[in-house]
């Protein structure tokens, strides 16, 4: 699953994403059963994530869950 501009996610959606990554399951809207999902997340952003954490726009726990391999690419 590719998340483009992950820094633009609202904080409440970021907390739901952290919960999903931790539990590896989710409930559908209107449903009462948990669905187990095995996914790999690729996230991209043009902004500096560490700076967004310091400014309070991005959750630190989500950063540590997404920051397994970092690729810094120059602009085209």
Topology (elements, then pairings):
Elements: E1 2-4, H1 11-23, E2 25-27, E3 34-36, E4 42-44, H2 49-55, H3 60-66
Parallel strand pairs: 1-4
Antiparallel strand pairs: 2-3
Model description:
The mean pLDDT is 92. Strand 2 and strand 3 (34-36) form a beta hairpin. 36% of the residues lie in helices and 16% in strands. It is globular, with a radius of gyration of 14 Å. Strands 1-4 form a two-stranded parallel sheet. It is α+β, with helices and mostly antiparallel strands. It has helices spanning 11-23, 49-55, 60-66, and strands at 2-4, 25-27, 34-36, 42-44.
Strand order of the largest sheet: 1-4
Strand content: 15-25%
Broad shape: globular
**What is the strand tally?**
4
């Amino acid at each position: 699953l590719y998340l483009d501009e992950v820094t633009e996610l609202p904080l409440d959606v970021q907390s739901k994403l952290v919960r999903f990554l931790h539990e590896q399951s989710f409930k559908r809207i209107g449903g009462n059963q948990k669905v187990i999902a095995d996914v790999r997340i690729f996230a991209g952003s043009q902004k500096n994530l560490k700076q967004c954490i310091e400014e309070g726009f991005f959750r630190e726990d989500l950063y540590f869950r997404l920051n397994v391999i970092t690729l810094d690419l120059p602009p085209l």
